[in-house]
Amino acid sequence: MTTPTDATFWGPDFTALQDQDPEIAAVVTGELDRLRTGLQLIASENFTSPAVLAALGSTLSNKYAEGYPGRRYYGGCQEVDKAEEIGIARAKELFAAEHANLQPHSGANANLAAYAAFCAPGDTVLAMSLPHGGHLTHGSKVNFSGKWFRTVSYGVRSDTELIDHDEVRDLAREHRPKMIICGATAYPRLIDFATFRAIADEVGAVLMVDAAHFIGLVAGQAIPSPVPYADVVTFTTHKVLRGPRGGMVVCRAEHAKRIDKAVFPFSQGGPLMHAVAAKAVALRECQQPSFQAYARQVVTNAQALADGLAADGMRPVSGGTDTHLALIDLRGLDVTGAQAEQRCDAALITLNKNAVPFDPQPPMTASGIRVGTPAVTTQGMTEVDMKEVAALIGRAVRGQDPPADVAAAVDALVSRHPAYPRG
Ligand SMILES: *Cc1c(COP(=O)(O)O)cnc(C)c1O
């Protein structure tokens, strides 16, 4: 049977929640309203499909399935085994990868597993510095990566604002890292995986690509894949990829065992099988030609948005973008990132303040903002709309128009392209 016998136990139907817990039901509907109302420009967010949400809201959440398909520590795994096997097969096909692990609960967990698979505490790891666009898990002192490993950081060049490969090579030769990480949270340009591979080979390091941000563009064939170059690729499934919140690892067959052991039992217990199933659903969506068109449009939109902001006096770091996000330096307008974030919020534009390279401001103030197009592209906006979005951001950031006027214009734009359209 493919249809549940009693639909009240299943599905994105809020009746039971509304009846039994009106407080939380109000949060759920309130959040849906919030998503529908403003412009969602946070580069790491997206709108998942009803099919993904249905898998997430299913009774697969109940199942303990420690282990891997066919080798579980619990009985009754025959159905969830199928979900994980289907998901693994889809991931391997989509990314042309030799091995895939769908169990990491998040991107940070996927990264913890990669460190655990290849490094011992105290080993040296070379990764991008946080203020230049790297991630907490790339060696921040408040994170396991910075506490348990000796991390050395590379950054971008001050003239081009592009990754400084000479610095990467020099640091690799000097420090002989066990692992080199590339991939970032706030870097708008393509990463030269071949050069990183050559540097890793020269010093005998493992190459880990943290593709959390851009893996959806890889899945949609809009940008080159890191998979042929990396020993291991970690990523989140909820950013451009448009799946459930979670993480994933793909790697070469020779590393399969150590990666699987590093995820379970080293760093996690039971997998979230509803999330694993939802990842499988998202991977199938990524295999469709429509997702390739989506990924290309995400990049076109980000470029149009960056161009529009540049024309309005807001400088894109590195001059533009090749991906789904742009980092915008607001020093030309004499507005800080924190002020801009707050002013945009008041105008129903959701984005985040962000440090720019060599930022003189502390991180909580920051000189820039980060904008991304995954969500607005999912709701059907194109480069024509991005011109308008750029103008609206400009009005909000300058703070001369009443926020309510900008918000009204945002509302008019968004209602032409509703997120989660009503019936
Ligand atoms: C988002 C992100 C992560 C972490 O993902 P979480 O699911 O929030 O733990 C890791 N690395 C990079 C580069 C990211 O952008």
The main sheet comes to: 7 strands, mixed
Number of helices: 16
Terminal CA distance reads 27 Å
Beta percentage is: 5-15%
Overall structural domain count = 2
Name of the top-level CATH class of the largest domain: Alpha Beta
What would CATH call the homologous superfamily of the largest domain?
A: Type I PLP-dependent aspartate aminotransferase-like (Major domain)
CATH architecture of the largest domain: 3-Layer(aba) Sandwich
Bound molecules: pyridoxal-5'-phosphate
**What name does CATH use for the topology of the largest domain?**
Aspartate Aminotransferase, domain 2
Radius of gyration: 22 Å
Overall number of strands? 15
Strand order of the largest sheet: 4-10-9-8-7-5-6
Overall shape: globular
Which class best fits the helix and strand makeup?
A: alpha/beta
Notes on the structure:
With 423 residues, this protein is an alpha/beta fold. The protein has two domains: 59-286, Type I PLP-dependent aspartate aminotransferase-like (Major domain) (Aspartate Aminotransferase, domain 2, 3-Layer(aba) Sandwich), CATH 3.40.640.10; 291-416, Aspartate Aminotransferase, domain 1 (Alpha-Beta Complex), CATH 3.90.1150.10. It is 44% helix and 13% strand. It contains 16 helices and 15 strands. It has helices spanning 15-20, 22-37, 50-56, 78-95, 107-118, 144-148, 165-175, 193-203, 215-219, 256-267, 273-286, 289-311, 337-346, 374-378, 383-398, 403-416; strands at residues 39-40, 67-68, 71-72, 99-101, 124-128, 150-154, 179-182, 206-210, 232-236, 247-251, 315-316, 325-329, 349-350, 352-354, 368-372. The strands form four sheets. Strands 4-10-9-8-7-5-6 form a seven-stranded mixed β-sheet, sandwiched between helices. A four-stranded antiparallel β-sheet has the order 11-12-15-14. A hairpin with a 2-residue loop joins strand 2 and strand 3. Helix 3 (50-56) runs antiparallel to helix 11, helix 5 packs across helix 10 (256-267) and helix 13 (337-346) packs across helix 15. It is globular. The mean pLDDT is 95.
